[in-house]
Amino acid sequence: MNKTINTAWTNKLQKTIDNTKGKFFSVKFIKRDGSTRVMLCRNGVRKGLKGGTLKYNPRERGNAIVWDVNKSAYRTIPLARVTKLKINKKTIIKL
Known about the structure:
Elements: H1 7-18, E1 25-30, E2 36-42, E3 63-68, E4 73-78, E5 82-87, E6 90-93
Antiparallel strand pairs: 1-2, 1-5, 2-3, 3-4, 5-6
């Protein structure tokens, strides 16, 4: 996988995810091992926080932290590897 982060693409996705304001959305991306993952998630969830903080800034690394609805756990989405994002009946596809 190319380590160069497409900032225009990641910025667009981050802005779109931030604008969901806690609504559900689905995302399809390529994991580090090369397999594809489809996830139903939402951002802004505060459930299960233990009071600690992340040791890095996910935005600086081109990541988004979301709540995976099906696994009931926090997950990191690598925005540069997102291939499809569906929010409010709108679909964004990386060509």
